[in-house]
């Protein structure tokens, strides 16, 4: 998967460079016929050749992403199955496991995001980080000022977004605690250990608390997304103003400006993916910490069992 992620970088550069060549050398040029090796091309033939190469690069890029996603899905599902087996085995090893109703949301809900993240933990930063570096390199090669303009809002994003994400992490821990509390209440009612109106009141209160926590999480997540979109949309303003001035002054070609604008359109996507990766990484870390904390309490009830065995088994798996 790492190899496929690295192969995608030169293919991406071709998809950025070829539109520039089409505009500058096939559309806005009077140097025809063009001789390449032992062949001569008129303007239409040269345009078709460049468009064919661009189509070929797009097909290669799509095929590469398809194969990579298939591998990622395979790894994620294999990891999820083994992780669930480890959690289940750890739960069954406790003599009081029948009284631990929290195992239901753990096995059904909490472990799934961890398994899904297993395939992205290495490939996503390589793929998206490499994409970001490739696009930035292309921009700087067209004009250093335009390349620097693409980085103007990046420091603001790196400062504000992690601070907001830490607040989301606190609420995520609270959400996990509320879900487990709800599972305990429902399990007690199923076993008939709770009767009367009090269980209904406690369950209704748990529903309300869970709703309030999730609402606060949604507010913060959507605010982070909106802020990120707004900051990303500021960069094209600099491209149109500075880039347009450079074209008028003859500092860069029109094809280079068009290519930079197209590249920036692709620039925002990996940046969003990297911020989403950071959010998912923090969420996964919290979920894994809560699961291991739960089983550390289980292991405390057993005799002479090291608390780190569960984590070591997961690492080996």
Structure overview:
The chain has 317 residues and is mostly helical. The protein has one domain: ABC transporter transmembrane region fold (Up-down Bundle). The chain has helices spanning 2-27, 43-92, 103-118, 120-142, 144-149, 154-190, 198-249, 254-300, 309-316; strands spanning 34-36, 39-41. A two-stranded antiparallel sheet has the order 1-2. It starts with a helix and ends with a helix. The model is unreliable at 303-308 (pLDDT under 50).
What keywords describe this structure?
mainly alpha, ABC transporter transmembrane region fold, 2% strand
Judging by the overall fold, what is the CATH architecture?
A: Up-down Bundle
Number of domains: 1
- The helix content, as a percent range, equals over 70%
Largest sheet: 2 strands, antiparallel
The parts where pLDDT drops under 50 for at least 5 residues are 303-308
What is the H level of CATH, i.e. the homologous superfamily? ABC transporter type 1, transmembrane domain
- The CATH class is Mainly Alpha
Output the radius of gyration. 27 Å
Instruction: List the total number of helices.
Output: 9
Oligomer: single chain
Number of strand elements:
2
CATH third-level topology:
ABC transporter transmembrane region fold
What's the order of the H and E elements? HEEHHHHHHHH
Average pLDDT score: 78
- Walk across the major sheet and give the strand order: 1-2
Report the end-to-end length measured between terminal Cα atoms.
18 Å
- Name the overall outline: elongated
**Estimated structural class:** mainly alpha
Strand content: under 5%
